[in-house]
């Protein structure tokens, strides 16, 4: 019989572990490449560089992983709401006692190191959602349950947004993937996708064209409806939807110009028109695309990236780490990294579907959703397909908060899955 609490037993999914180790190792090497200076010839283990500090974070992460794997799997289920409540208190505390870094008061500073609680809030929220949805009788089609779940997600979002950390706030939208799997009415994500599409269209095209498109779309819906469904009530409902959509499109300009902060408006401008102010607000994205494009098919070689060496791309070891991958390892290297993440997310989803408890399944989908969102947005923003919102590439970007939070997120799930594997082998 397999021992349930043996952290090094065959109960751990080794394929997921190998994918994780591959990501962490490649991330460390690329952090080194991003900060490497041919004049200084610093080593991988130089603690004065980001690469050396990242090695320290990797070492402490191993300790965290061992702690996760040796505790009983019921620990995370039992204390899910306790973790969530503690993180809410920490998010409140950071608003008053936190350090302002790059305009965001979302960090605790400890000497030369900083910790960002928002990264760990995603883990706590995932556990709280899994705990709530595991309660017998919970139904996502009921308004009461939707309100409770919405509250669990929105509360940390508001606190993180209050610290001026928009990027981390947007990550919480990834929980929609899990909620849809668990029975969220399809019209809710449909409304969200439609709102996002209309927002982008309103920034690109004249409002009149969009109004004509909305009218044509609703007219087509009415034409395709069976005659017996063309009641006055249904026609009025469709008309009301049209009015709401037109009002929403009309309000986009006001929202962008009067609600968003200047740096947020600039990021949207760059997304809509990549050529706007290439030496100013468009500098990051322009240089990122130059760096990635210069790598071509096979890349310039490890430590041979000229854009990287001369610091053309800001934040290259953190938010823009994918530029180093694209420049030094080319299109092939970029595909390998994307394949690693596709394999990791796919494996997590497969394992989530095999879980015997709803708690483990829900949590697994939360893990997959968070990692997928980070990868999609981070890589998308480096190639100009997504706005620059400053979120890390999981296991690759430099930073202890990021590496710790993603590792904790993943290995809690692997611990839960090990219990399922042990029961299967009995």
Biggest pleated sheet: 3 strands, antiparallel
Number of helices: 17
Q: Which shape, going by the Cα principal axes? A: globular
As a whole number of angstroms, the C-alpha radius of gyration is 23 Å
Integer average pLDDT: 88
Structural class: mainly alpha
First and last CA, distance: 6 Å
**Record field, number of beta strands:** 3
Helix content: 55-70%
Low-confidence stretches: 1-5
Percent range for β-strand residues: under 5%
What string gives the helices and strands in order?
HHHHEEEHHHHHHHHHHHHH
Number of domains: 1
* Order of neighbouring strands in the sheet with most strands: 1-2-3
Pfam families: FTSW_RODA_SPOVE
GO molecular function, one term: glycosyltransferase activity
GO cellular component, one term: plasma membrane
Keywords: Cell membrane, Cell shape, Cell wall biogenesis/degradation, Glycosyltransferase, Membrane, Peptidoglycan synthesis, Transferase, Transmembrane, Transmembrane helix
Entry summary:
This protein has 426 residues and is mainly alpha-helical.
Structural features, described:
It contains 17 helices and three strands. α5 packs antiparallel against α16 (358-382), α13 (283-294) crosses α15 and α15 packs antiparallel against α16. The chain has one domain (14-204, 261-425). The chain has 426 residues and is mainly alpha-helical. It is globular.
